[in-house]
Amino acid sequence: MPASSSSSGVTWFWDGEERVRTLTERLGVETFDQHLAGDTLLQEATGVRRLPGNLIDVPARRFASGADSLAHGLAAGLPTEALRLATPVTAIRRRAAGGLEVRTPDAVLHAEHVVLAVPPALALARIDFGPELPAELARLARATPVWMGVVAKVVARCPAAFWRGEGLAGAAVSRTGPLRELHDMSGPDGSPAALFGFAAAQDVGPGFERAVIAQLGQLFGPVAAEPESLHVQDWSGEPWTAPPDAHRLADHSLFGHPLYQRPALDGRLHWASTETATRYTGHIEGALAAGERAARTVLAPTTDEVNTCFR
Predict the structure, then answer these.
(1) Which of 98, 114, 209, 287 is the most exposed, fewest CB within 10 Å of its CB?
(2) What end-to-end distance do the CA atoms of the chain give, in Å?
(3) For the residues of 251-280, what is the DSSP string, one character each?
(4) pLDDT digits (tens, 9 = 90+) for 62-95
């Protein structure tokens, strides 16, 4: 999916996030610089003000073919039939013979180790662990927020990145909404052209798209009020992204909790979502770091294999 039109996930990665950078190079994923030049718009109840310079964006890299190009690249290197799509895990239990039993709607699998690369709260909502998990760990997992799990992302594709010609960065902050923060999401050299913004998922409902289009017109003028397309992604409504009660999860101090750093179920169940990372939580870098930690534990003591994982 083109970087300019995708609202399906991560938009950027930043300087210092070496795992992502190394992975893009290894997979041959093309990246480009986030557009920064221009002024910022501030929308208040009294109107719109133009502030000099880009006050909300920082230097970052974008994925020319969308962030899912990383997942596709990694999947292409897996053995044939190793990846089972549309096969949700419904239960995980200890086996009397050792290891873990993983149940899906169509099969029962046996594994020495299981790595959970989904948000802990989603895992507890969708997977039946029975009485297997320690009570403290289960409480923690149910209470840990899903990163961006209660956010809606909106992408407006435009005929051209006209705002750049007007000296604007495409960056805006709003105190009135519905979009609270906006950015330039155009492709390389501004084509295809797009603006995107974040809104509270609870604000998505009847009239939301009309309100977004009206806001774009107020901020960027009449051309922005007639986008070629408008895509709204409400992450709170995605059953494989957020649990039904995602809106009540608000304690972000639980990200990277020490309990996530230790495997459960006799050392066989490992946490590897970005919410469990001790650094770069919420970023691809955090997800890769969490996955690397899990891999090191699974493969120990043969950690030399993991050392080359992201080179």
Answers:
(1) 98
(2) 26
(3) -GGGTT-GGGGS-BTTTTEEE-SGGG-SSS
(4) 999 999 999 999 999 999 889 999 999 999 999 9
Examine the fold and report which residue of 178, 210, 237 is the final residue of a domain before the chain moves on. 237
The span from the CA of 267 to the CA of 265, in Å, is 5
Give the predicted TM-score (pTM) of the model.
0.91
Q: Tell me: the pLDDT tens digits for 12-43?
A: 999 999 999 999 999 999 999 999 999 999 99
Closest CA to 184 of 297, 296, 32: 32
For residue 128, give the DSSP letter. B
User: Any idea what the CATH number is for the domain that residue 216 is in?
Assistant: 3.90.660.10
Q: How many CA atoms lie within 13 A of 16 on its CB side?
A: 6
If asked whether residues 65 and 190 sit together in one domain, one would say yes
